[in-house]
Structure formats: C-alpha cells, structure tokens
Amino acid sequence: MGIPYAAPPVGDLRFMPPQPVNPWDEPLTTTKEKPACIQYNNNIKKGQPYGMYGVEDCLYLDIFTPAIDENERAVIVLIVTDHFQNSYNKSKDYAPDFFIEEDVVVVTISHRLAAIGFLSLENELLPGNSGLKDIVEALEWVRDNVGQFGGDLNRITLMGLQGGAAAIDLLMYSKAKDLFSAAILHSGTSWSTAYLQEDVRKRAFRLGEIMEVPSSSDIKLLKDLQGIPADKLLSRDLHASPDDYFKETQRSVIAFSPIVEKQPDGLITEYPEDSTERINIPIMMGSNSREGMNEDGTWGAATGDEMCYLFKCPDLVKEYLKLENNVPEEKIVQKKMIKMWTNFAKCGNPTPENDEDLEGLQWPPYTVENKEYLHIDKHMKINKDLYKRRFNFWDQFIEKWERLAVDGVVTESKNKKDEL
C-alpha cells in the first residue's frame, strides 16, 4: 500500500501532467495507505469530516493480492470519484476482501481532483486533464509491475463508479485504451453532459481574479495559482464558472473536470459521440433503480449501493456477520454478484458455463437486436427492452421537433401549448 507511481505534484508541478517518480535504491516500505488527494468533502455520509481533507502529495496506488507468486491472476483496478470533485477513502470505504477471496488482484488509484487536477489554459503550457493523466501514469506502472504481485498484465479490468466510470469510458476512446483489457462501468458514462467542460481557459483566469491574482499572462497566472494554498483554491474554484452558466446549460455544478484538449497529441482529443474508434474490449455496465437519490427509507437502490455487496464496507461489518450466520436471500445475491464480477475480470464473461455458484444463470451480451439485460433483485432474471417507453418518447419528441426546426433551431411553435 502507498506505492508512488508519479512524482509528488507539488510546487511547480501543481496542475501539470504527472512526472516520473524518482527511483529508490533501498526496499520501500509500503504497508500503510496514503491520504486521499486533497478535496472538499460535502458528503456527510462519508467517513471523513465535512470540509477539506486530503493532501497534494497523493499520487500513490495500493495493491492487494492473494499471494506473491507467478500465477498471473486477473487484475481489477478500482477508480471512484463523484463528478471528479471527490474521491473515496480507499479501503476505509471499500475493502477488497471479497475479490481477494476469489483469487483476483485489486489495485486502487488516487488521482488529482477539481481545479488541482483539471485546471487548463488550453495550450501547450497547461493542456489540462492532468487528473486523467494521473490514471494513465498509474496504469502504465501497473502494466509494468503487476506481474511482481501475482497479477496478469494481459487481464487488467478497470472498474469505476460515477466519475470513475466516466473516466474509464473516456480512456476507452484514447491512446490509453491498450493499457486495459476490459471495463466495468457503474452509474457513469462520458456521454453525460455533466462531465466534459468547455471554455475552461476563461475559468482559469477567472479563478485568478477570485484568488486576487489577476493577470493577462499565462505564465504569471500559472505561477501565482501554484503559490496559493490548495485548500483555499478548492474552497472557491466552483465560482470560476460563468455567471448563470448552470442555469443556462442545465448542467451539473462543476467548474473543473475533463475536457477535449486542443492539442492533437493530447489524451482526450474528441467527444466520445464524435469518435470513430472501435471499442473491442468486453464492457459490463449498469445503473440502479434510484440513481441520483439517497433518501432513507425509500425503495430501490441508490447510486453506489451495490458497492457494499462487492466490497467490504467497514461501517457494515455487523451486517456482514448477520448475513454469514443467517444466509438470507441477500447473501445469495451478494455471492452471485461477486462471482459474476470476478468471472468477468478473469475471462470477459460474467456467467461462463458450469459455474455452480451461479446455479445455471446465463447473462447474454446486450445487442441491438436482443436488447437483453440482467435485472439484479432478490431473484435475478433476464429482461428485455430496458426503458423502452422512455426511448420511444424521446424518439418521437426529436422526430417531431426536427420537422419544425430551421438549421437546427426551433424559433416559435405554431401551437403555443407545445412544450416539454
């Protein structure tokens, strides 16, 4: 635990793409997890106190393995962020015990967030996406070294929740796609308008004004912002967006997150919907019935609830003991989920034939023709046509208003009652 994969991104390296870590000559003691990357915590349900926590020197990864040998086990790399503004607290939130028991290597990565990770001047001086480039740097380290920890460099599955899933989705369209062989996306996609930002150069200069270091010089602005305490930056970076931006665009309240870079040799160079890149790796993706909701006492699963079935959440230790002793339906569901996720990492198929733990369950690949998906409840079953009514509504809506549009714009409806 606490293995450095890049140089500490502090001082003149703040905001910049990750730099190689200096090699060490003596054995490096890595038995303690490092603090999370600095961030402003606004989730009172997390284990951390409300407000600022974490550090800037945070580019470390943790490896959990069943054994140090030459067995070449499948590897799962976990990435969890909330809109690239907050991350999780590693094994204090999600411990990898259940995957380890299935003979899988688990890697967790810390990467920079918010303005610290995604400030951009949209030029060669500061192209942006440093937080994503942290992930790529870590994956290169995993590729080069995971064999020393009993892992198989040819079976690396990226698993992400929310912003972590969106990050993985973006990387599938980038030159980093060769660093992993499969992907699991929980409640997130790069196609969401919440993530990719625009005109971020203006936001960088506005942040300088907010921090009382206004400048018209790229170099001076960068140097001045590198000298401001990180906690002060992150307490105000949200205000760098244009006035009424979120009201006008109906987007999430985010100022700094991934962008499409201006440089042709950048990491993210086009919007995913514009890409002609062929995705040729197996992908498992899904969402919960109460996405975006966390009300207590309501039916269904909120965003991320499934993670405590797959990882051991320390706050639920007593609940796990109850499951072990009573073996209710939830324990059966949990066991099958762990098996399917680790099967997918091992062979690209969550339900291979002759898996006794799955009791004959077969999860077919989703295609445009069959539109089959797995519904996970007390009793798992294959359903078809997920959200069919919603898709039909939007198909009809778009078709109708396309007919009324001139050059893609509807100026005024003949029927005043026509509206969303």
UniProtKB/TrEMBL annotation:
Q: Which UniProt keywords apply?
A: Glycoprotein, Hydrolase, Serine esterase
Q: Does the keyword Cytoplasm apply?
A: no
Single GO MF annotation: carboxylic ester hydrolase activity
What is any Pfam family matched here?
Answer: COesterase
> Which intervals hold domain Carboxylesterase type B?
2-293, 299-394
What does the sequence similarity comment in the record state about its family? Belongs to the type-B carboxylesterase/lipase family.
| Name this protein carries in UniProt | Carboxylesterase type B domain-containing protein
Q: What is the lineage of its organism?
A: Eukaryota, Metazoa, Ecdysozoa, Arthropoda, Hexapoda
